[in-house]
Structures are given as C-alpha cells and as structure tokens.
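Backbone-to-sequence.
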C-alpha cells in the first residue's frame, strides 16, 4: 500500500472533521493516550500522527480510528478509512523512487516552509483561487497548509510531479534553508540506499561461494 495515499486519506478525514468532533475523539481516547499528551493536539492530522506513534494506526491497522469515527457519528469517514485497504491504488505514473523522494520533500517542506507557503505555491503555478481555498482549510496550522499545498500541486502535475521541480521552486523563492535541508535528506537517502544495495550484493556473493 502507498503511504502517500494513506496520508492523503488521513488528511481528507482530518479536513472533514469539525473542531467539536476532534474534541470528542480526544475525550474518548484520554485513558489510552493520556490527557497531557492530548492537550497540544490541535488538528486531526496531529492526532492521527500520535495514534501512529502509539501503534494504534497504520496502513494495515485502521480499526481503532474507524471505531472512533463511528462513535462521533461520522460513519462516512469510518467507511473512508475502512475502504482504504480494498480500493485499488491509482496509477499516477510515478516511479517508486520518485514517490519516495516526494514523500521526503513533503515532510521537509511542511516542517520548514512556514508563512512562505503562498510564495512557493505561486512559483509552483497554483492559482490565487486555489491558494485561498487551501488557506481556508487550515487557517491556523501552517504545517497542514504546506501539506495541502503540495498535495494540490501533485494532483495538478500528475505523472509530471518531480522532486526537482520543488527544489527549483524553493531556490527561486530564495528559501535556502529549506532547500538545503531537502537536498541533504535526499542525499542521505541515496547514500543509505547505495549501502544497502552494496550489502545485499556482498551477501549474495558470499552465499554463492
């Protein structure tokens, strides 16, 4: 299963929940998660991330969240998460390598972009109407705004969505710190992958001797 697709489903569910519904879920999980851990949670996405850290939510483990959504009378959202594992994964034409790079880019940019998200969005070719729509979805959460921005950009580009386009846009916007962090993370992943492949070849060679 694609983690990108799973994250997209979770984001859709987060966006569809009201503040009251979020608080209802936080109340329901106080005993299992802990009241103190829930105090700083301000969005569904943050709550779902906490669930994942606690082993309560994963691509192949959605029952916990599904039941909570039923408890707050959101059967539609419960069905959405239940259907995740049975829906065919859409073919966006991207290679697995590029998908992995885009996932890293999304994480780095979301964590570091801050108030410059509109500037980057314009450079990526998103319309002012689309940017305003993104802003209304997450008026107080810049990290979620950045995730939504990159999701919309990815949808608009389809198979043409490439990490290099994000790097070029960051450079053009003079978002140098974020650009440097992204390049470092991608280089680290590339180096790590080479080491893994080298170890695999060494193991295969030893096995054949």
């Amino acid at each position: 299963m694609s983690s990108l697709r799973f994250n997209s489903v979770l984001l859709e569910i987060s966006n569809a929940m009201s503040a009251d519904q979020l608080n209802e879920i936080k109340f329901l999980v106080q005993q299992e998660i802990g009241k103190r851990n829930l105090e700083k949670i301000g969005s569904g996405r943050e709550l779902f991330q906490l669930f994942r850290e606690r082993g309560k939510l994963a691509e192949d483990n959605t029952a916990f969240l599904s039941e909570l959504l039923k408890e707050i009378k959101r059967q539609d959202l419960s069905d959405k998460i239940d259907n995740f594992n049975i829906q065919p994964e859409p073919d966006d034409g991207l290679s697995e390598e590029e998908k992995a790079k885009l996932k890293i880019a999304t994480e780095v940019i979301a964590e570091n972009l801050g108030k410059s998200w509109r500037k980057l969005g314009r450079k990526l070719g998103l319309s002012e109407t689309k940017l305003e729509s993104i802003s209304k979805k997450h008026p107080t959460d810049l990290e979620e705004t950045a995730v939504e921005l990159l999701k919309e950009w990815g949808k608009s580009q389809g198979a043409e969505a490439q990490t290099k386009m994000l790097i070029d846009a960051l450079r053009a916007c003079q978002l140098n710190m974020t650009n440097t962090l992204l390049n470092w993370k991608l280089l680290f992943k590339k180096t790590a992958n080479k080491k893994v492949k080298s170890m695999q070849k060494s193991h295969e060679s030893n096995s054949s001797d």
